[in-house]
């Protein structure tokens, strides 16, 4: 993957793994914020209120620096870490994986737990559809109305997403484009004579 793309999942997916009568239900969710993560976690805790453990791991942001693993009462490092390991080995981000465990009466031991949480997370990932997204940057600028055609020509040729536009005596526009294309877009826009960036 190039520096301005990242891989995530398109929609929620689910996997189930059983080991010595313990049942592990794994759910993967596409997420962008910690608030979204909290909503999914609360929903899972409500839905599986009778489960012994609701463990999870998440990774946020294209730089993959914002992450967390939670064992939810399992021995330290036996649940959240192996789930996070699966996110990492698949190079995914903007993802939350929750694994719910129903205890089957037979203890699995630490290595058994690690293997079970890893396998359950892998099942949820295997069921997911991946998408490669671009890391986008945004630019806002102002220009005078007579230069509208010049600006729109650049927009048409470089095809950025128009996030916001307003036409008055002064026109304002906000564009979003893939990070690697931003320098070229700015260079083209700066050739439009009256263009300036807001303070």
Highlighted features:
199 residues; alpha+beta; 5-stranded antiparallel sheet; 3-stranded antiparallel sheet; 31% helix; 36% strand; elongated
Explain the overall architecture:
- By secondary structure, the protein is of the alpha+beta class.
- It is 31% helix and 36% strand.
- The chain contains five helices and ten strands, in the order βββαββαβαββαββα.
Mean pLDDT rating: 93
DSSP, total strands? 10
Characterize the main sheet. 5 strands, antiparallel
Query: What's the overall geometry?
Result: elongated
> How are strands sequenced across the largest beta sheet?
2-3-6-4-5
Series of H and E elements: EEEHEEHEHEEHEEH
Number of helices: 5
Question: What's the arrangement of secondary structure elements?
Answer:
Blueprint: E1 5-9, E2 13-19, E3 22-30, H1 34-47, E4 53-60, E5 66-70, H2 80-89, E6 95-102, H3 109-126, E7 130-134, E8 136-144, H4 148-158, E9 161-166, E10 170-178, H5 182-190
Antiparallel strand pairs: 1-7, 2-3, 3-6, 4-5, 4-6, 8-10, 9-10
Helix pairs in contact: 2-3
Structure summarized in a few sentences:
The protein has five helices and ten strands. With 199 residues, the protein is α+β, with helices and mostly antiparallel strands.
